[in-house]
Amino acid sequence: MQKESNNTVHIPTLQQIEREVFFANSVSEVSHDLDRGLVCFMNSIDADDLENRMSFLTSYWAIKRTLAVIQLKQNPEQCDDITCSFLL
Q1: Strands, E assignment, the chain
Q2: At what angle do helices 14-24 and 27-44 cross, to 10 degrees?
Q3: How many domains does the chain fold into?
């Protein structure tokens, strides 16, 4: 996810997420990068800017869910409880 100049959030497409996973060769690596990005991004948004915070969190959960689906397809035996919880 990228923060654009007007504080809107660019949500990557499924193909972009799959491409990131392909090049990283690991769903968990992309997931950890996303988690680190969450902290940085949330710290950069004003606490009163609830609209952008909610937009970002909605995007974050959608991407985490997509990563869980990719993980389940690639290596179902490695889909731990935390990853699979995003599918609920």
Answers
A1: 2-3, 9-10
A2: 120
A3: 1
Closest to 87 (Cα-Cα) out of 61, 71, 68, 74: 68
pLDDT at 7 over 80: no
SS3 labels along 31-49: HHHHHHHHHHHHHHCCCCC
Which pair of tokens denotes residue 23?
């090049």
Total-model pTM: 0.64
Mean per-residue pLDDT of the chain:
75
Instruction: Tell me which range, 3-7, 56-60, 73-77, is most confidently predicted by mean pLDDT.
Output: 56-60
Q: Chain centroid to CA 6: how far?
A: 20
Beta bridge partners of 10: 2
- Domain span at residue 24 reads 2-85
